[in-house]
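ping. complex inputs:
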Amino acid sequence: MTSDGAAPTTPNEDELALREPLVGGATAIESGYDSDVDVPADASASVPEARREEEPTTPATPPRRVNFRGFTARTQSLYLGTERTLSTQTTDSGAPEDAVESLDFADVDSHWARRARGRGVFSKVSAKWIVAAFIGVGVGTIAFLIDVSVLYAYRGRGKLFEVCRRRVHLALAMFAYGGVGVALAAIAGALTTYVAPRAKGAGVHYVMAMLNGIYIPKAFDASTLWVKAVATIAAVSSGLMIGPEGPLVHVGAAIAMQFTHGASSGMADLFQSDLDRSDFISAGAAAGIAAAFGAPIGGVLFSLEEASTFWRESTTRRALFSASIATFVLALARAVFLEGSAASEHTQMKNPGLLRVGDFDSTYFLIELPFYAALAGTCGVISGIVTKSIIFVSTNYTPQRNERRLAQVVLVSLACVVMFFGVAAAGKCVTETPGEVSRWSEASIRLWCAEGEYADLGSILLGNKNDVIAWVLGSPAKAHTLHALLLSFATTLISLIMAANLFVPAGLFMPTILWGSLLGRAAAIVVEHSLSPLGDLRVNPHAYALVGATAALAGTFRATISVVIIVLEGVGKSAFLFPLLIAVAGANLASRLFGASLYEEQLVRSKIPFLHAKPPKALLDDSITAFDVCARDVVAFKAIEKVSAIEEALAQTTHNGFPILSAKGKRVIGVILRKQLLVLLSRRAFVENLVHAPVLNSSAMEEGHDDDSSSIIARLGLTDVERERRCDLGVFMALSPASIAADARARDAYVLFTRLSLRHLCVVDAATGAIRGIITRHDLFDAAESVDRSLHHSVSSSSILL
Amino acid sequence: MTSDGAAPTTPNEDELALREPLVGGATAIESGYDSDVDVPADASASVPEARREEEPTTPATPPRRVNFRGFTARTQSLYLGTERTLSTQTTDSGAPEDAVESLDFADVDSHWARRARGRGVFSKVSAKWIVAAFIGVGVGTIAFLIDVSVLYAYRGRGKLFEVCRRRVHLALAMFAYGGVGVALAAIAGALTTYVAPRAKGAGVHYVMAMLNGIYIPKAFDASTLWVKAVATIAAVSSGLMIGPEGPLVHVGAAIAMQFTHGASSGMADLFQSDLDRSDFISAGAAAGIAAAFGAPIGGVLFSLEEASTFWRESTTRRALFSASIATFVLALARAVFLEGSAASEHTQMKNPGLLRVGDFDSTYFLIELPFYAALAGTCGVISGIVTKSIIFVSTNYTPQRNERRLAQVVLVSLACVVMFFGVAAAGKCVTETPGEVSRWSEASIRLWCAEGEYADLGSILLGNKNDVIAWVLGSPAKAHTLHALLLSFATTLISLIMAANLFVPAGLFMPTILWGSLLGRAAAIVVEHSLSPLGDLRVNPHAYALVGATAALAGTFRATISVVIIVLEGVGKSAFLFPLLIAVAGANLASRLFGASLYEEQLVRSKIPFLHAKPPKALLDDSITAFDVCARDVVAFKAIEKVSAIEEALAQTTHNGFPILSAKGKRVIGVILRKQLLVLLSRRAFVENLVHAPVLNSSAMEEGHDDDSSSIIARLGLTDVERERRCDLGVFMALSPASIAADARARDAYVLFTRLSLRHLCVVDAATGAIRGIITRHDLFDAAESVDRSLHHSVSSSSILL
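pong. complex structure:
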């Protein structure tokens, strides 16, 4: 049955460890394997989509010579993704999601690594803290740049409007105001479309995917970083209904990524492992949220609750460090440059984030708690509908060609600004209360109103979002009419849904907070009115606004603890603890009726094989075994394998890992990665060479090549003589790979895979130990997806409660 | 080599699943196994201490008849621990720590379970939320009872002092005051010593152990619960330098435990698995901290950061639910019963916890941040010294006999009260500021002072800790002299170290916060004095007090995020975010020079085999393999095993799990638990009976007996005829047990074991798959401990930074 072939003298591991000169060994690749497992007719279907789809595209790429010996330079370009995605660049949504690949969180424990290891652990740990500090400083600085640019953009536009209106005509003023906005949006759109398509949207789902162990090309490289930063400034300044918070998370992660593979940083050598990278990305994401909301702990908890799948205690501490520094840098920069106070001066740094809320009354009645719950439930329902709408728009109205994408940005931003002016015209001019003017000066927008007045709807829709939110949360009780609140609420929702899917960097935190607080203020008026027969009960409108905003956030992003802490830290009102807890609970309960959270929907839509910590419902059926979900087209090697066999396997499959089998019994004794094999072949690390001249160093082995384009094989330039040589894979393979019995439950395989952050899980026969298949991320993801989409939805949503 | 014996017709799993009438099968227990692995001379040393030490004690217990068919009642008494620890009750420290045992977090996936399963999942989930609500209500109620009892105890004692002083003499007043305190301490001591020794101390380390997967007898049963609640009231009221916060965590966990095995609750059937139990214990612990500090999110984060090892998203949400309810119940009860406001009235519930802090100035200068860091570092150093001192006292001055323990409680409380009065006499009488009297009325204690005055040191040392801490944190700038602060700081430290190890329930949060804030206030005076040459800089003493308190907490308990959130939620001063972050970082950095945290030291001292998520340093050496750390005296069965063999194995070993081996090749095909075997034998579930009358139901199989006393075997009353029968273990064994190659790194085995929450990890030969050993919690713990204690310390402490 097995093609054991010529020489049965394959040595066992102990002999391999001794590195005696090895002769003989197995000669044939174990591809005759499939014959003894019953491969179903549609066996090829078990090969993940991504693997098969890539193959046809690669021959189009002309074979270029790659210097396999320049490993640092090559690995770098690999992680920067400059090479791999050239051919798939212009596919759907500018982001070739199919090219995703798993990361290797586990370090390779091979005989070779055991001998070669011993780099300084202490210096690495210190360096990690230094890098965490740099990430914090970087994120804080970029957050400040965004903050100050958007501030001056709004101020300048306001002045332009004022000058035009006074000197020429209102129509020209509106035209100029709108024109600047459209131009800014066009700049953001052009940068995103033509330079870095991965900078589109919030980008939080890329961070989630990376932390889940999925490599997404170009998502975190330098060009995406600068485009995201610059285009975020332009897009937020343009007046589109978007915010900079989500993009800051992406920026934080991208900054973190620069430190782990930067050409000039010299850090690259220290942090080669994917686990280190994920550590820094957690810290960067935490720093992003921390700077956005002035909430370092909230940022860490967001990174923990929303973005991360695997989390270590050390990650928490380093993320908190980065987040604190980012918040501090932003607060200090604001204090020094914007508020003009020197560092030694008295400063509270009370609301150090981008979102600043004034001080307001923090009392409420216990009897109001049910109203808070009802408001939270309503916000949850609306969040669910908004999420569904965004996904609907994204599914049906995403242009495929670049010029159309840019045109969409221009048209939508034009439509929005026309809508804003139109709705503003439906509003009233309100006299400014003298004491209040200074507090909300940036928020109140005069438009066509008389001196000393401002447009109530115009101020909400056309103002700088930071100031508008502070105004809606903190303005005095009678500042807004129900009519203005409901009208601006509806307009905000519509413009949010229109803007969410444009090809610009777009965060939804800000607009979500805005519509939530608008609805909350409206609810406060309704509650006060309906309670008035009961006596003179003065409800606190700020509490309703805060509950509405928190519920909207919780409903859209499905976070619990992190949202409450972000709001508590950002607003500084711990007296509102119970209302906020009710807001989060109500919104989560209500919104889950409408399916998964926005990020989860984005992951699904982007076809990112994201594995949740909890097994999906499809795998909870005990009758589904590990064998049912595994890929059965296993290509395996022997410990001593012929070069031609390795080359053939590399060329004919796109597998990233190959099990090494024992000569007898086909037991898995190790797993070797594609990138390891490519390094071995490119360095001509044959048994014969290796014994005489051990040319390899361990770090080269641990990084290595990850490209699965088969043209790489051709570039190896193996001669026929070399093809007859053999490689001692037993020395380099990862020892004791994870395995599971074929008749074990699929859910157990899922748990094993996710808890241990595996990339390959061998499925073996319980009785004999022979290999029967391999489970990868794609297999588990496909198995989970094999139930229909609606069922999948109920799984995602029910995971909120279970 | 193998004793395959008579009939080699052992069926494979598929046949077992079909449950055809089985005849033949293996006849001999595979104890001849050890012969083909090279057992070293000291092989018996690899049997964990606990297993061996228990055996000699059991013959002392007279064989009692246990009704094996009354499973509910029996399991209950098992988990209540009434039976198991009778014989070991009076050993060291009243707590037979050796009797600890691992929990089964994994559900048993056997052929039997696959067919029998299908209980309603939905109802279970709903019931979990209801139980979480009850846990919250229970913890909130007990927290309120503690709060109100302590309040009235202090008030009553104060009145008694006042009456005696005025009517008779100061000496009698002091005598009466001290006498009541000593009597209360004696009550707490007597209850703890004679009724529930596990109620001693904070009990947080029991919660940590339980959540780590270690069952500690009697730690969470009903008697411990009520003793802990009552004795905490008595002990805190007695005036000892202890607080109720830690005990509330233990109480919360114990309340949670009542719901999972309560006789009357009817819930017991729903929540049989150890995983469910750990879920509720997390929620209970979170609710305890939440009620103590009025910090629901802080409670959840404390439970996550400090107490838990394994954590699921669903646990977070349920714990937050319990914690919110507990906080709300306490706040509502206080509002209604203590502050006299009806529920409909206007209430802020601003500081809803036991610890209440008034409103105070929240400004600080940026230039002060270095001083905060220095203060935090000092607090960290002191925390480290305090921890070491407590451990020293506990190691050297723990009486073994009950009467001595009680005497220690009486003498120490007497010494403390004498010391407090003595130090108070060294203080001054201070005139009360009229406006301040009402705010700190409970804190200011008059003693021998004139009307309208209070004793400065006496108030700090003899007052109700809640009020004293609120006073020290919030009192006006000139309220305390440096002399009074330093003297009370020193007295607090000494009395804290004296009281920490008494046989009473004793939490250290309160006294730690007290000394931290006292030192902070003192630091504020010193800083103001030393900065005065630079100009008129008015430092904020409240900020220093808060930083000192936070740093003291962080240094003692080594938490980061949870401490900051607890303080932020409890005090409601988010403006202090940066000082608090500096406090936590500085204290953690400084205190780690002095070894592990207090809880870790308690775990080590209690010999609880706690496994941290991070592999210990001893196992980081790549040359240590899984085989090096495993137990090699494996006793295994065949799928069809003779009853006499099973009985013999149960009687002669204390193993809790037995691998089932394939007939050929000795591959592990399953693992069966001791408790399953006992149920099988007691129900006479032999192959012959089973085929004709399947008497078992699945739930009985899943719980089952956990007692490893060999006298149980005798009580089974097996006849010689029955001993010749066979059991079909293949049907009931857990399929596809976790296994690892013998030459895999020990650290990988550790990670596998902890990440998957295993109880048994089979070590198999990489090449053949034959079993070579088993790794249990004790093996990993012993391997980690085999390096010397000082090295272990540096591991624990370095894990703070790494």
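The domain at 13-91+615-785 of chain A is CATH 3.10.580.10 (CBS-domain).
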